[in-house]
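Propose amino acids for all 174 sites.
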């Protein structure tokens, strides 16, 4: 969703509150693509501080479905993002890049709310997501999830592998 910011430049001190729906259905990162499970409308208050400088405060609430780092089961991770930014609209794209102040969510006088929320999500992504603290992960023996009802059960080995199993037993005896 785009918000046109040009109406705020007419009067210094003018402020406006926006409640816009979040169009984002999935969130792409270098580590993967995550589905957006729940989302609420994004509330933003944008104020003209003068000299083409805008103050932006807001809140975004959403949940992403991220796989557990050990067992790969989907985990619903809630995010409550507090947004507090200052945007200098006098700067050109080149000046912003030189100052490492890239605001990819601003295009001319338009604010892309989905990109703004995406940049805040990147800053708040957890390093590692676990379905629970004592998650056992995927079994290296049979590839099942010991946390689930099917996993963790002792499975019979393939009879064709019995020869190799005998070799290992002989090596242990030595």
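Proposal:
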């Amino acid at each position: 969703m785009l918000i046109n910011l040009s109406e705020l430049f007419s009067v210094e001190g003018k402020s406006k509150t926006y409640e816009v729906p979040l169009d984002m259905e999935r969130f792409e990162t270098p580590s993967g693509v995550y589905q957006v499970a729940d989302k609420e409308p994004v509330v933003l208050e944008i104020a003209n501080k003068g000299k083409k400088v805008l103050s932006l405060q807001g809140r975004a609430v959403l949940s992403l479905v991220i796989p557990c780092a050990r067992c790969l089961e989907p985990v619903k991770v809630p995010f409550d993002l507090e947004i507090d930014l200052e945007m200098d609209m006098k700067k050109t794209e080149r000046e912003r890049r030189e100052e490492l102040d890239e605001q990819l969510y601003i295009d001319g006088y338009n604010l892309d709310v989905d990109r703004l929320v995406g940049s805040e999500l990147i800053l708040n992504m957890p390093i590692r997501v676990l379905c629970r603290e004592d998650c056992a992960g995927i079994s290296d023996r049979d590839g099942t999830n010991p946390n689930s009802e099917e996993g963790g059960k002792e499975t019979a080995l393939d009879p064709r592998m019995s020869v190799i199993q005998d070799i290992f037993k002989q090596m242990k005896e030595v």
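Residues 113-124 form the longest helix (12 residues). The chain has a mean pLDDT of 83.
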